Automatic annotation (TrEMBL):
PANTHER family named among the record's database cross-references: IMPORT ATP-BINDING PROTEIN
Name this polypeptide is given: ABC transporter
Keywords: ATP-binding, Nucleotide-binding
Database matches in Pfam families: ABC_tran (PF00005)
């Protein structure tokens, strides 16, 4: 592994131990024996070539994909063996942001954000604008303000730019009051400036609110600028685990050779 300069500090938000995954029928594992600890509030980039298993790793960390071996802990709590409501409750600690924002186009921005509260809703209906309580609407507005889009709350989602839509998707993830944000190539389809704006929002959330951030990216400059630490997947294993301060763009490019 490339020089592991990262030294764990503080309480652990996410602990991964000995994780391995091979898809059925595949000749080789996606990766094997992956272990790392992420302290609360750390910003971590996951890099690696196409097919290195970045998305699979992110999903295995929530058991959206079942690993073949190993264990994942949120804090001290192991996800192994959790089922149904217990697993859903544990997963609700993580706000997941995808490459595609998946907003409901004909609904307002505020209603889309309210949908993020479904993770802890008793009845889904209460998450529609007009039915939701003032308390929930105010919280949704607060989440929108955290991504600097409070002024667009009444706009239809299909009238937003790509960058604005992704920021609404982040606000929707914040609505579930997560401890961690996992983001899978969140700026892949955005222009450079919108991509920077979205990465800055993530970074501010991690720095100002101690939200732990784990994001997959192919933008090496984002890994260096917006992450405290970089994990790199290469040759079916974790080939890099180092603080971004200690890395150069040339070293990161080496993960793609
Ligand atoms: N559900 C699945 N069933 C079978 N194989 C899968 C499945 N999901 C992913 N794979 C395979 O696992 C490998 C890793 O895929 P993954 O999407 O995690 O890679 P990635 O590093 O995120 O790639 P990219 O940078 O192209 O998005 C690939 O070979 C992919 O084809």
């Amino acid at each position: 592994m490339l020089e592991a300069t990262y030294k764990p500090a503080g309480d652990t938000a996410l602990r991964v131990r000995g994780l391995s995954k091979r898809f059925e029928g595949a000749a080789a594992p996606v990766w094997s024996d992956i272990s790392f600890d992420i302290p609360h509030g750390q910003r971590v980039a996951i890099i690696g070539g196409n097919g290195a298993g970045k998305s699979t790793l992110l999903r295995c960390c929530m058991r959206l994909i079942e690993p073949d071996a190993g264990e994942v802990f949120f804090g001290d709590r192991s996800l192994s063996g959790l089922r149904g409501r217990e697993l859903a409750k544990a997963r609700a600690r993580v706000g997941f942001v995808f490459q595609k924002h998946n907003l409901v186009s004909r609904l307002s921005v505020l209603t889309n954000v309210l949908h993020g509260g479904m993770a802890w809703a008793r009845t889904p209906r209460m998450w529609f604008h007009g039915i939701a309580t003032d308390e929930h609407r105010n919280y949704a507005l607060h989440c929108l303000e955290r991504v600097k889009l409070g002024h667009l709350c009444e706009r239809r989602a299909d009238e937003l730019s790509g960058g604005q839509s992704q920021r609404v998707a982040i606000a929707r993830a914040l609505m579930q009051k997560p401890k961690m944000i996992f983001a899978d190539e969140p700026v892949a389809s955005l222009d450079p400036q919108a991509g920077e704006d979205v990465m800055q929002v993530f970074s501010d959330l991690a720095c100002d609110e101690s939200l732990t951030l784990l994001f997959v990216t192919h933008h090496l400059e984002h890994a260096l600028r917006y992450a405290d630490r970089v994990l790199g997947l290469q040759d079916f294993r974790l080939g890099l685990d180092a603080s971004s301060d200690s890395l150069s763009a040339r070293q990161l490019r080496g993960m793609y050779e």
